[in-house]
Amino acid sequence: MKQLRRITILLALLLVCVIGTVAASAASEPRIQLSETGADYEYRITIQNWDSLAVGVQFDVIVDLKNPDYQMSWSVKENGTYQHIEQKALDGGKTQLTFYLHKKSPISNSATATIGYLSFNKLKKTPSFTTSGYMKVLRADNLEEGTIYQNIKLSLSKYQPPSSGGSGGSGGGGGGSGSSGSSDTSDTPKTWKDVSKGLETKDGVSSITLNMRWDGRLSVDVLKNLAKKKVQATLDYGTYQWLIDGATIGDIPSRQKYYDLTLNTKKLRNISKAANGSDVMQFETAYDGDLPFTAILRCKVGESYAGKTLFLAYYNEQDGLLEYRDHQKVDSKGYVQFSFDHFSRYVITSEDLWGILKKEASGSTGGNNAGGNLTAGNNNQGGAVIVPPANDPNAQEDTDEPEELEEPEELPPDDSELEPEQDDEPDDVPTSSDNARKSKGMVALAVVGALLCIIVIVVIVVIMYRQKRMQ
User: Fold this and answer.
1) Which of 80, 123, 288, 409 is deepest in the core (most CB within 10 A)?
2) What is the DSSP string of 407-453?
């Protein structure tokens, strides 16, 4: 009987391993994600768990609309790229949109591929989305065969307020800012009427501080009033602030309802590697794309960097490059600020990877030091650093929790805000992936293991039953 107990224990451990293997293989499969962009019925389409060496993909999105009026803005602008959508009517008033994307070089060097932005016109209701589960992915080294998936999942990411801590550092690109926590956030962002009580005027300059810790969305109504009244606004997200001068606000797209400026500070290991480990901070905003205003990010990197120069770079996920954007000196309190008119993924480094300071010393480029006001510079010089592929075993995305920035000093309270906090060619489209092949192999192994476990269990039960009968 002791031997049987040992066998049972070993069997239980084997079952745990099998379950873990199945879960790991499922997690490595690609996933389609649609994210609200803040514009009416517009959705950013990305594919998660992307093979960064893939050059083509085919997948579908099913929408519960009959013959919808839609537009697609593709993210890939490269000449020679094949981009097409095939529309098919389904039963129940639904429509299947099949996307085809194929280019000569890898679509994305990241573990996430941005396909583009899908928008619908003249809708009376918010649509819902599903998928058939089919996806085909091709790589340059396997264009004919490719890798076919049959059970791909699709998720729709809507805006979610920050967690109860209100730190504002846990957002996901294009997908809001983490779990909802205990927040009063409504379906619509706050308007100027909700926040205007905090407006102050001193020496002829109008300013306002907005508490964005519970709701990271900046509504178009607030933006229009900042522009109209020439107000300088400080948007407090807890661990960082955005500074917006109303005078910089231009024409806002008619469909836009709000801009989500929440930061996701989770690090990607391949970017850290490209930065030689000098990345002080990596971040991307929930909103992705061009801005109709200039926004200045002010964050505390630590007093240990006081007086030092830090460098801002843009991560070009399609070409796999860190492109230099700006450099600024850290002030005596450990704060640095950079200006933006486009949101995507960026990295702040302590190392001059592009030789900018050397060029300045030789007189080939102009200097740019941070000011203490709302006019941080934007020295968009050339230069790029190659980022290793995201599916390099030593350069995978970091799955740890986002890094928390140092907490800044408290900003003046805004009485108009919420209650203060109490101390996240169609059928031949390319596809193939080593990761996908490994995933299928793991699934097959898991199935075989499960069958073996069942057989062993049956054998043990029979032996135990016979022994009991003999006794």
Assistant:
1) 288
2) PPPPPPP-TTSSPPP----GGG-----HHHHHHHHHHHHHHHHHHHH
Measured distance CA(194)–CA(288) in Å, rounded: 26
Residue 202 to residues 228, 409, 460, Cα–Cα distance (Å): 18, 22, 84
The DSSP call for residue 199 is: -
Where residue 463 falls among pLDDT bands split at 50, 70, 90?
confident
Which DSSP letter does residue 28 get?
A: T
CA distances from 364 to 73, 242, 322, 417 (A): 38, 31, 21, 48
- For the segment 340-366, the average pLDDT, to the nearest whole number, is 89
By three-state DSSP, how is residue 193 classified?
helix
| Interatomic CA distance for residues 310 and 280, integer angstroms | 9
pLDDT interval class at 183 (50, 70, 90):
very low
Can you state the percent helix, strand and coil of the chain, rounding each to 5?
A: 20, 35, 45
Q: For tokens 């400080």, what's the residue?
A: 234
The secondary structure element, H or E, covering residue 217 is strand 217-219
For residue 440, pLDDT over 80 is answered with no
Where on the phi/psi map is residue 282: left (φ > 0), alpha (ψ -120 to 50), or beta? Answer: beta
Whether the model clears a pTM of 0.90, i.e. scores above it, the answer is no
Who's near 453: CB < 8 A, 6+ residues apart? 11, 14, 15, 18
| CA dist., res. 228 & res. 196, Å (int) | 13
Q: Using an 8 Å Cβ cutoff, are 258 and 218 in contact?
A: yes
Q: Which residues, 6+ apart, have CB-to-CB distance to 232 below 8 Å?
A: 205, 206, 207, 208, 243, 244, 245, 246, 374
**Are 443 and 28 spatial neighbours (Cβ–Cβ below 8 Å)?**
no
